[in-house]
Amino acid sequence: MKMELNEFLISAEEFGQRTGPHDAIVLSSRVRLARNIVGIPFPGRADRESKQRVLETVQPAVESLPEMKSHFSGAMADLKAVEKQILMERHLISREHAAKGAGSGIVLNRDETLCVMVNEEDHLRIQSIRPGLQLKQVWQRIDKFDSELEAKIGYAFSDKLGYLTACPTNLGTGIRVSAMLHLPGLVLNEQVNQIIQAVNKLGHTVRGFYGEGTEALGHIFQVSNQMTLGETEAEIVERINKVVLQIVEHEATARRTLLEKKPNELFNHVGRALGVTAHAHIISSKEAMNLLSLLRLGISMNLMPGLERSSLDELFLLIQPAHLQQTCGEKLASEQRDLVRAGLLRKRMKGVKGVKPPPEPSDA
Amino acid sequence: MKMELNEFLISAEEFGQRTGPHDAIVLSSRVRLARNIVGIPFPGRADRESKQRVLETVQPAVESLPEMKSHFSGAMADLKAVEKQILMERHLISREHAAKGAGSGIVLNRDETLCVMVNEEDHLRIQSIRPGLQLKQVWQRIDKFDSELEAKIGYAFSDKLGYLTACPTNLGTGIRVSAMLHLPGLVLNEQVNQIIQAVNKLGHTVRGFYGEGTEALGHIFQVSNQMTLGETEAEIVERINKVVLQIVEHEATARRTLLEKKPNELFNHVGRALGVTAHAHIISSKEAMNLLSLLRLGISMNLMPGLERSSLDELFLLIQPAHLQQTCGEKLASEQRDLVRAGLLRKRMKGVKGVKPPPEPSDA
Questions:
Q1: Is A212's pLDDT higher than 70?
Q2: I want to staple B293 with a disulfide (CB 3.0 to 4.6 A). Which of A226, B163, B218, B255 is the partner?
């Protein structure tokens, strides 16, 4: 009997309860590998039959690995639109993959930390994602998984070029190492563009995850490597890890600076976010992301007794359109979602008292 | 022994507790008369000595009238800047009068419903103000007061032109009849500019009390007569009263329409206003006026159990710069006022539960 996706997925509550190193600032660490099967055209060039052959080769091979002992496996053509969107909202598949139909598929492990997209831009896009800053652990794990899979599938590989990929930007290692960072302190301190420029100069990419610069939705930024050639995977992971640690340090300093130098502005931002979240009757997902971001900042600074980071991270997921519709058990138009979202947030914020400034450090 | 102004004034709480007909929409009714003493130049043309003479003639005459049995009487030169601003915030004196020094003065009755400015633009500006729609009562009272005063002071009067005034726009009756209206329903329904135009075409003046059109601060508008010639005072009062009653009807309809056609937008506006008022840490007086205006709307529509109109009207006064400084007992810079104002509002909103939609009318 085949399991439905929504029975397989962990709950938003469980999703929010996951923890990891530096998770007040680093939302998640991700490594993905682009791989292709030797002798078959890349998905963009392949006919339906070739793609089907890839799917039928890759899915059983992936499913047979120990990491995938319990898994969800499916063809994109069989998934409902809302299911695809839920996978997207959990960052398990790309927007491009969600748009795929016949010939494309996914295999997802039990705790949603490992996901293989079949026939996205490449035949295989293997990705591992974990909460907090765990790039090295994520890399070691995906490396082992990739080796086990390579023993079963003949990857397209050139001694001179490395792993062959549909797009030359992925050629060589085929690796994309990234971390999703929550940087409200740098945004409120008006330092984030400066940091972005500095990191980009080092040859990495930092950008708003859902928008540019200070306009980044939810103050969420993604750091990733630009180059996939000329360095080993371990070196790339090490470099991104180092950059992330530096940004984490800057963000932590920015938060301390806000509290020391502009406490009222900080309390005002966080307090207003609570007030609106607790009392609005219409909230778009974009506004909700920004409000929750400020509340998450408040929690990390002990300004919000009665509110837990895990609830916030659960809400980050629940306010997204597909999750909201799943919670309601029905399809909702955009205007209806804004009402339901506001209702959900009001309910969850009931009883939260307001910003409570931390006690002054005593001199004793 | 002379009484200090702050000992004489009624408390903001008492101020907020005053009621009047239609006070959910009509904040106050006001009539003022411009009068001058025969044989002395208008204040703009008078030398110091002449102005002093006017003050010494007018103040004792006013104080001797029965309405002024208990009164505050003072020279503008003797009032502190904060005291003048408090009188302005209570709409008892004009901004122009607050700027006056030697030779100008005021006499104010016990319940702050009757105030005479001496040497403002004219030698006397007599005004009576009451909460709600009470234009006729206010007119009758000020007419009686004016007659009693006229018996003691020789007014500058021409059989052809009527009462002579410094500015020709006041010539004749010297009367300005006005009502201060709270029109959030028309603003939210985007009908207010239409109403303003219609009323202006009738030859009256409607304008935002602290700003223009839909930008009017606190959704507060003032209706007043433009012409002071060619009609009796009673006719002018009657016409303004009629116009106000029509606007009141439009505003009431707009509020019902909001509740019936756009309830979620209404709850959203009022809810957000509550959320921000209850949780912000920095609020300017302008923003506070707009927030309190929306809460006052919510109260008038029974959406805000636990919050009374009288508290709102008290807060409208308390958040103004001079009242805020008087409450604190010290002079505060603008940034400090924004903090103190937010603190006051948070304290007052504690325990207010949020917007509670009224029960659906039952079919039974």
A1: no
A2: B218
Answer whether residue A145 shows pLDDT above 80: yes
Nearest CA in chain B to A357: B281
Q: How far apart are CA A247 and CA A183, in angstroms?
A: 9
**Least Cα separation, residue A343 to chain B (angstroms):** 11
Residue A246 has pLDDT above 50, yes or no: yes
Gap between the Cα atoms of B349 and A14, Å rounded: 35
**Tokens at B324, concatenated:** 């805020």
Q: What pLDDT does residue B212 have?
A: 64
The CA-based dihedral angle spanning residues B333, B338, B343, B346, taken in that order and rounded to the nearest 10 degrees = 160
- Indicate the residue type of A333: A
pLDDT at A215 over 70: yes
Distance CA B217, CA B219 (A): 5
Mutate to test the interface with A, among B272, B284, B332 (most CBs of A within 10 A): B272
Q: Which of A264, A275, A279 sits opposite B282 (nearest CB)?
A: A264
Buried-state track A293-309, b at ≥16 Cβ within 10 A, e below 16:
bbbbbbbbbebbeebeb
- Where is average pLDDT lowest: A203-212, A248-257, B55-64, B290-299? A203-212
Give the pLDDT confidence score for residue A364 in this predicted structure: 46
Backbone angles phi, psi at B152, to 5 degrees: -100, -25
**pLDDT of B185-225, one tens digit each?**
999 999 999 999 999 888 898 988 776 666 789 999 999 99
Q: Find residues 266-295 of chain B whose CB sits inside 8 Å of chain A.
A: 267-268, 271-272, 274-282
Do A255 and A214 meet the contact criterion of CB atoms below 8 Å apart? no
Tokens of B147: 């007659």
Distance of alpha carbon B319 from alpha carbon B340, whole angstroms: 9
Model confidence at A181: pLDDT above 60: yes
CA B9 vs CA B90, B187, B323, B342: distances in Å: 10, 33, 12, 25
Choose the mutation target among A258, A261, A265, A281 for the interface with B, i.e. most B CBs under 10 Å: A281
Hey, are the CB atoms on A274 and B279 less than 8 Å from each other?
Answer: yes
Q: Is B301 on the interface with A (CB under 8 A)?
A: no
- Which residues of chain B neighbour A339 with C-beta distances below 8 Å? 264
SS3 per-residue string spanning B166-192: CCHHHCECCEEEEEEEECHHHHHCCCH
Q: Closest chain A residue to B346 measured between Cα atoms?
A: A354
Maximum CA pair distance of chain A? Answer: 76
Q: Give strand pairing partners of B163.
A: B157, B172
- The domain segmentation of chain A, as residue ranges, is 5-249, 262-349
CATH tag for A5-249 (out of 3.30.590.10, 3.90.1150.10, 3.50.50.60, 3.40.50.2300): 3.30.590.10
d(CA B350, nearest CA chain A) in Å: 9
Q: What is the mean pLDDT of chain B?
A: 93
> Measured between CA atoms, how close is B313 to chain A, in angstroms?
22
For residues A87-125, one letter each, b for 16 or more C-beta atoms within 10 angstroms of the residue's C-beta and e for the rest, the string is bbbbbbbbeebbebeebbbbbbbeebbbbbbbbbbbbbb
Contact A274 B271 (CB under 8 A): no
Whole-number Å distance between alpha carbons of B351 and B203:
47
Output the pTM of the full model. 0.93
- CB spacing of A354 vs B277 below 8 angstroms: no
Nearest to A63 by CA among A149, A123, A2, A121: A149
The reply to whether residue A279 touches residue B355, judged by beta carbons under 8 angstroms, is yes
3-class secondary-structure state, position A32 = strand
